[in-house]
Amino acid sequence: MFKESDIVLSAKHIVKQFPASHGRTLTACNDINLNVYKGKTLGIVGESGCGKSTFVRMVISLDKPTSGEILYHGKNLADLSKKETWLNRQNMQMVFQDPLASFDPKMKIVDILTEPLINFGKLKKSEKENKARELLEMVELPGDFVDRYPHNMSGGQRISIARALSLEPEILVCDEATSALDVSVQESVIELLVRLQKEKNISMLFICHDLALIRSFAHQIAVMYLGNIVEVIPGEDVTEYAVHPYTQALLGAQFSIHMDPSQKIQSIESEAPSPLDVPKGCPFQNRCENCTDRCKAEMPKLKEIAPGHAVACFYVEEQKI
Ligand SMILES: Nc1ncnc2c1ncn2[C@@H]1O[C@H](COP(=O)(O)OP(=O)(O)O)[C@@H](O)[C@H]1O
Ligand SMILES: [Mg+2]
To answer: Which atom of ligand 1 is nearest to the CA of 20?
Structure first.
């Protein structure tokens, strides 16, 4: 299902560190290796603070990795000139969590929707209204919304999706894009995204703290913990075949679509350590029932255990689960 020739974007050994107080270093992303495939969704899931947004900021060139490479069709994003980086924005567009905060409240919907096309010189002013109506129709909103202001309408997330897709990007990045929505609205926005993905063969990078939601539509799921990817698994296999103790905890009944991001995962007793104080060895050791001396001394690496399924866990390795 995942062919090398279908790779659109590839993260290779991505490390991102931030300077912290008292001369310390915070490692937000630690050796991330992931592939985004043509027309498929890669879901990245993990608790708040595990490094998801830091990773996507590098993917969309808002930040540079400390080390490692992000290759877009084989080309390292860090090697692009400023102009090339700007041009490349057309290929990778982002939907934010809070559309109202990201739109200028003084702009009408017609201008919000067509601004990216105007900026890239792809639309004449006289064509704005027709294009905006077409984009509204694409996201199943009434064409008359063109004259409204963002605070005077519902469906802000759909506007954000329409604006992001106006440039016909190859990759759509959604960072907690549906997390603030009611469950029923969330489901309808996901349905819309899945339909548009199929129609336009878009690759999606969908960042979310909710595994129950992400497994319903992601083709590939990467589970992130304290800056590390601990399991990568085809979305359709996650419920039955996920083996990392952290993924299993995320699958626990208490961690569901209804959970508020600030809540703790109730199926895990202790808390995640501070990212400034990551233990030597496996990052999950203090919360894991299967932790051994080896887990405290050595860091497990991701190893493939089935096609498209890799896990970083000595317990799994030794038990040959
Ligand atoms: N610009 C920054 N400077 C310092 N620390 C940062 C910065 N951005 C993120 N971090 C830290 O990196 C870690 C990962 O953050 P983030 O990527 O936002 O996590 P997530 O999106 O998974 O909630 C957190 O500990 C956060 O405090
Ligand atoms: Mg985030």
So the answer is: 4
Distance, in Å, from the CA atom of 6 to the CA atom of 84, rounded to the nearest integer, reads 23
Phi, psi of 192 (to 5 degrees): -60, -45
Predicted TM-score (pTM) of this structure: 0.93
What is the number of the ligand 1 atom nearest to the C-alpha of 227? 14
Domain made up of 4-91+204-319: CATH architecture: 3-Layer(aba) Sandwich (3.40)
At residue 17, what is the residue type? Answer: Q
pLDDT for 153 equals 78
Whether ligand 1 lies within 6 angstroms of the CB of 42 is answered as no
Helices (H), the chain: 52-59, 82-88, 99-102, 109-119, 128-138, 156-165, 183-200, 211-214, 238-241, 245-251, 293-297, 314-319
Listed by start position, the domains of the chain span: 4-91+204-319
